[in-house]
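Hey, I'm writing a tutorial for new members on how sequence and structure tokens pair up, and I'd like a real worked example in the thread rather than a made-up one. If someone can provide the structure for the chain below, I'll link this post from the tutorial.
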Amino acid sequence: MSGQRIAAILFDLGGVIVEIVGMDRLLRWSRELPDMETMWGRWLASPAVRSYETGRSSRETFARDVIEEFGFDVDAATFLAEFARWPRRLYPESAPLLAALRGRFRLASLSNTNEIHWDRYEREWALPGLFHANFPSFAVGRIKPDADYFEHVLGTLGLRPEQALFVDDVQLNVDAAAAVGLVARRAVGPQGVREALRELDLDAEERT
């Protein structure tokens, strides 16, 4: 499949640009969730998570509600301290990859995130500056996998769906983007992004 019409690349952050850890700890805290796939499905649909990551609730309310919803065997302070450490590092290959793509494509981040993690993205890694535009879910009041999140980003950037490539490490979000009409690929880490680009004949490096 050719990606010759692609004008912009929309990036999920956690698991694609930023290494994320911590979901395994949640699984150990839970008395009812059997595996990571089930955990991710519940997490993305969680009313507590959706409220917090669309900017409608405080971190204290989020911690209280998510502990109750998932039956985590942990107190709120411990949960929030662990949650704040989920973004472990910017993958070493991320900044060079984005720099190589920046001259040929409009780059935007489209990420379910929150004020705790976004503060680290800004303060520790200056991550927003690696993109032409950023659409953190807590700031725009929309969240994946909802169609209106993708539609909002496309409308703001002035793009037709087929002009944008979306990469995410969660298949549910990839499928949701594809349903809106975006070119969508699952990608884990920068190497996964490079593989998606090669599949679409969009090399990461500038062609000569």
